[in-house]
């Protein structure tokens, strides 16, 4: 009876979180997320949007339970959820002790800084993708595959865009981005209307940990729409560095009119040292057109691209729409690719969070 009363009236203890591999341990006051507390305690926890959209705060829950403010499943795949991954910016501890494991970031990544930029050129790549060149006030260094936050005066929150060029040794003065028009989107509608030509834009970067890992197994790269941008950056950089891995670039588009950067891809393929195959796959090309290439969903061709090497160091590098990436993770895991060998940036937007909050 005494112990029952003690339990009943014991002040509720404040949960503690341990973050591996930093070894940091701190309390999380009621109502705070794991990320909020980590940042308050100066733990260098990877993050960007803080609203459950970008996936930057993805970490593995090693011990304890958390409650999701917005469903992790809007950003993480089923395979990642099954493996215990959570989003720290949306996780509130439910147990007295929580242990999370953060993935190692990019070794020697340049620090993220804020640059003053001007949109100096836009070039139409397809009916809904522009190459946008931004001149920044000083050279911007990044690792191929990373992205930047762009923000104009009219936006409340920045928008993420992957660097489309290979990094230059001294930093890029005129980085370019490949930006797809999102119907109803505040930034891209203005961009496509031409009202941002010459506009000032704040550029924060580099951000993210999408990059080419060292390895000798095949690289299966999968791009959807403007998701080609960071893969071109990675592939051009890898070509310059004389990477000798077998590489397959699967490019998913709707019709022939949605294919772009073909000359650039041909140039990369021509200079590649380890066998390069480019496989464009069209999902909505009219039947009976002159298209002789692959048709269907790009994820249907992962098996052929792996060519039986799923368990021989194969890695997947993917960028594009969330639905394509989720399906690709499922297919690749079923084919025996290790979840840890699957690297991606999902091109999520404000509607991702809005859907999760509304659910
Ligand atoms: C790491 C990362 C890298 C990326 N890289 C690229 C890239 O290289 N190229 C690229 O094209 N894109 C990229 N994206 C996506 C990009 O950041 C933007 O999300 C996209 O361009 C949309 O911006 P926007 O301002 O036009 O649209 P937003 O204003 O963000 O709106 C997007 C959609 O959500 C809807 N919406 C907005 N607010 C709400 C709300 N409250 N409720 C319901 N619906 C809402 C809008 O109507 C619209 O349909 C990347 C995203 C991430 C996370
Ligand atoms: S910081 Fe958590 S999803 Fe963006």
Automatic annotation (TrEMBL):
Coiled coil segments of this chain: none
InterPro entries: 2Fe-2S_ferredoxin-like_sf, 2Fe-2S_ferredoxin-type, 2Fe2S_fd_BS, Beta-grasp_dom_sf, Cbr1-like_FAD-bd_dom, FAD-bd_FR_type, Flavoprot_Pyr_Nucl_cyt_Rdtase, FNR_nucleotide-bd
Cofactor section: [2Fe-2S] cluster; FAD
Pfam families: FAD_binding_6, Fer2, NAD_binding_1
Gene3D superfamilies referenced in this protein's UniProt entry, alphabetically: 3.10.20.30, Nucleotide-binding domain of ferredoxin-NADP reductase (FNR) module (3.40.50.80), Translation factors (2.40.30.10)
FAD-binding FR-type domain: residues covered: 112-213
Keywords: 2Fe-2S, Iron, Iron-sulfur, Metal-binding
Residue span, 2Fe-2S ferredoxin-type domain: 15-106
PROSITE patterns given in the database record: 2FE2S_FER_1, 2FE2S_FER_2, FAD_FR
PANTHER family: NADH OXIDOREDUCTASE HCR (PTHR47354), PROTEIN RFBI (PTHR47354:SF5)
Name this protein carries in UniProt: 2Fe-2S iron-sulfur cluster binding domain-containing protein
